[in-house]
C-alpha cells in the first residue's frame, strides 16, 4: 500500500472536576511521559496550549516523531482524547501498533477513574482507493479491499469494481457497495427462491444491471424476462451474472437499456401484462419524511408496476438495512397509502458484502 | 445516546508541488472560506500555524463552533486532511451532517487536482459502551450496539453481553465479539453438521462456554459429551444455547468447569478415549512467528487431544478470518510439524456477527 495518513484515536475518562487548569497541567505531563516512554525521551515538541472554556475544555498540540501531530484534548464531561496523525509510508513500521496502544491505554488509563480506555485501529486516509464504506444507517466499516479493478464515470454515476479478500469482486456505484460475488443470498432473497414459482411466467426486472437476478431467474425456466440495465458487469462479476449479459437477447429474455418508466408506459399502451415485476433499483432514500424526488420515483415505480401486472401479479423489491427502522416504516406507509389497495409481506436475509441484515418486500393487490 | 466526542475526518489531494508556504496560505484561506460557509462567517478562530517541514508539511489549528477543534494538515505527498473534533450532546444536531460533508467535499475538492475527496462518518468516542470492534485482521467496524446488558470482570477476562440491532445479543470477551444469537452458522461449521455423524459418539468440547456448540450437538444424539466452561450465557444467549446450560449434568452430557489440559491428562491416565475433540478455545494469536505462550498452548491442546482421541478420531477447531493468511499458514505449519503425523482439511463460512468469512479445521491422524 502506498503512503497514507494514519489517524490514531485514543481516549479515556477522568473526573470532570479534576480538569481545572492545574489538573490539566498535571494530566498533560503524565500523557507526555506516557507517550515518550514509547516514542523516546524528548521526542515531543509542544506547539501550543489553550484553554477553550472554563468548564474543563483544554487543548495542547504537539509535534511527535515522524512529523506526527498530536492533539491532547479534554472535554467538559471528563473525556480525554488523544489524536495522533502522521504520514505512514507503505513499508514503514506503524508509529503505534495495536499492542503499543494497549500498553499506552494501561499507562494512561491509570489516570482515569475507571481505567476504561479505548484505542481504535488507525484510520487510514489518502489511500489509493476507498476502503471505508458507510452501511445503510451511516455506520463506518473498513473493508478488506486490496485492488481497484475498474473505475469510470458513466453519464449517470461512478462505476467501480473493487476486489475484496472476503467478498470477491464488488460492484460499487457512487461510493456505495452494490453487489459482490459473495451475495447470491441477495438475489435469492429478492426473488423469493423456493417460494415463488417462475416456470412459464412473464417477468419484468427493473434495474438489476449487474445481471445476477436475471442469471438466477433464467435457471427457473420462465416464459420471458425483460430487463433494463444501465451498466454491465459481465466481465468482473461473472460468478454472479454468468453468461447472462453476453447477449442482450436470449431464448427467453431481452435486455433493454433505457428508462424503465417509459418502457412500462409502452407496455400499458400495448396491453402487455406480467406475472412478476422485480424492482432492483436504488436503495430507499434516507430522509426525514417520505417526500422529495426519490420518494416520488418510488411511488411512480410501484404505480406503473401494478399497471403492467396482472390481477394476481407480484411486485418484489428490496428495502434497506434492518436497523433503518424509520426508512422501512416510511416505505410501508407509502405502500399502504397508494390509491391501489396493496398488501405486503417482508423477509430479511444477511447479505455478506452489505454486512447487514437486508429487508425484502413482496407486494400484491389486496383481494377484492 | 449520551454526550460523546465526534471526530470528523475529511481529506483530499492537491499537487504536492503547490504546498509551498504561499501555496499553503492560499489553501488555508480557501478551506476557512469553505468551512465558514457552513459554520457561519467569522466562526473560526485561528489558534496556531506551523510549518512542520519544508517538504509541504503544514499545520493550522482552529477553534470552531461548539468548541470544536479543527486541524488543517498538509502532507508532503499532497494529501490535505481536516480533522474536526467536538463534543456532541446526545440530542444535538451534528456539526456537520453527511450531506454537509459531501457539499464541503465538492467545495474543497475544487482545490484538488482530481476532485477525489472523502468524508468519513464521524468517529464517536467516549460512548457509554464500545461500538467499534476490530476484525481478526485489525480492520475497524462500527457495530449497531444499542444496549450494554451485562458487564463484569471474571478472574480471567472481561465478560460483556451487548445487544446489536442486527445480531441480537452478543457475547464480548475482553473487547472481542465472541458469539451472537445470529451465529448458528459458526456452530454448524465448527461441528461440520451434515458431514459428521455424532450418533452414539463420545465427544469432548474444549472451551465453548457459550453453550451453543453443546446445544447443537445434543440434537445429534451423541453418547456422551464433556464440556468445560468458564462462563455461562444461559440467560442472555438463550436462543443460541437453549436450556443446555441450565444443568451441568444432563442425560448425555457433563459440563466441567476447570482446566481442559488437566482434564485431558486425567483421561489419559484413566484410558478414556473420544471420537471427537472440538476445540472452541481462543482465536489464533496474531504474531510474526508461531512462537510464544499462545502458540505453545495451541500445540499442547492438539497433542493432548490426540492422546485422548481414538485412532480414527477427529479434532475440530476454528481458525480465524480468511484474510489472515499469515496466521492460517502458521497454524497449518504447526499442525504439519507436530511429532504425530496429522493431515487436515479446512472449510469456511461467513459468520454474521464476525462480519468475516471464518476458517474451520478438521484434523486427523494420517493413515499408517
TrEMBL record, chains A, B:
InterPro entries: PABS, PABS_CS, SAM-dependent_MTases_sf, Spermidine_synt_N, Spermidine_synt_N_sf, Spermine_synthase_animal
Active site: 280
Cited SUPFAM superfamilies: S-adenosyl-L-methionine-dependent methyltransferases
Swiss-Prot/TrEMBL keywords: Polyamine biosynthesis, Transferase
Location of the PABS domain: 130-366
Family that this chain belongs to: Belongs to the spermidine/spermine synthase family.
Name of the protein in question: PABS domain-containing protein
Source species: Orchesella dallaii
Amino acid at each position: 500500500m502506498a503512503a497514507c495518513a494514519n489517524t490514531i484515536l485514543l481516549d479515556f475518562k477522568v473526573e470532570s472536576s479534576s480538569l481545572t487548569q492545574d489538573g490539566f497541567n498535571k494530566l498533560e505531563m503524565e500523557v507526555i511521559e506516557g507517550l515518550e516512554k514509547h516514542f523516546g525521551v524528548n521526542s515531543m515538541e509542544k506547539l501550543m496550549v489553550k484553554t477553550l472554556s472554563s468548564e474543563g475544555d483544554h487543548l495542547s498540540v504537539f509535534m511527535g516523531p515522524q512529523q506526527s501531530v498530536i492533539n491532547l484534548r479534554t472535554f467538559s464531561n471528563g473525556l480525554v482524547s488523544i489524536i495522533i496523525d502522521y504520514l505512514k509510508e507503505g513499508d514503514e513500521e506503524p508509529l503505534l501498533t495495536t499492542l503499543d496502544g494497549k500498553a499506552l491505554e494501561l499507562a494512561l488509563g491509570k489516570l482515569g477513574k475507571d481505567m476504561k480506555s479505548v484505542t481504535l485501529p488507525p484510520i487510514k486516509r489518502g489511500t489509493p482507493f476507498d476502503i471505508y464504506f458507510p452501511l445503510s444507517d451511516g455506520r463506518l466499516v473498513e473493508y478488506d479491499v486490496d485492488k481497484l479493478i475498474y473505475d469510470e464515470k458513466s453519464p449517470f454515476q461512478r462505476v467501480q469494481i473493487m476486489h475484496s479478500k472476503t467478498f470477491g469482486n464488488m460492484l460499487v456505484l457512487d461510493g456505495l457497495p452494490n453487489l459482490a460475488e459473495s451475495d447470491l443470498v441477495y438475489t435469492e432473497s429478492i426473488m423469493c427462491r423456493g417460494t415463488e414459482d417462475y416456470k412459464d411466467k412473464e417477468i419484468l426486472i427493473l434495474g438489476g444491471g449487474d445481471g445476477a437476478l436475471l442469471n438466477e431467474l433464467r435457471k427457473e425456466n420462465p416464459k420471458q424476462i425483460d430487463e433494463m440495465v444501465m451498466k454491465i458487469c459481465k466481465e468482473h462479476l461473472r460468478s454472479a451474472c454468468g453468461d447472462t449479459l453476453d447477449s442482450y437477447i436470449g431464448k427467453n429474455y431481452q435486455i433493454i437499456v433505457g428508462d424503465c418508466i417509459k418502457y412500462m408506459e409502452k407496455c400499458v399502451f400495448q396491453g402487455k401484462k406480467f406475472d412478476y415485476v422485480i424492482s432492483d433499483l436504488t436503495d430507499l432514500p434516507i430522509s426525514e419524511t417520505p417526500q422529495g424526488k426519490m420518494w416520488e420515483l418510488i411511488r411512480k415505480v410501484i404505480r406503473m408496476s401494478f399497471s403492467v401486472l396482472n390481477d394476481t401479479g407480484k411486485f418484489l423489491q428490496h428495502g434497506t438495512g434492518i436497523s433503518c427502522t424509520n426508512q422501512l416504516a416510511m416505505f410501508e406507509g407509502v405502500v399502504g397509502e397508494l390509491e391501489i389497495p396493496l398488501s405486503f409481506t417482508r423477509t430479511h436475509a444477511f447479505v455478506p458484502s452489505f454486512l447487514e441484515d437486508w429487508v425484502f418486500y413482496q407486494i400484491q393487490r389486496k383481494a377484492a
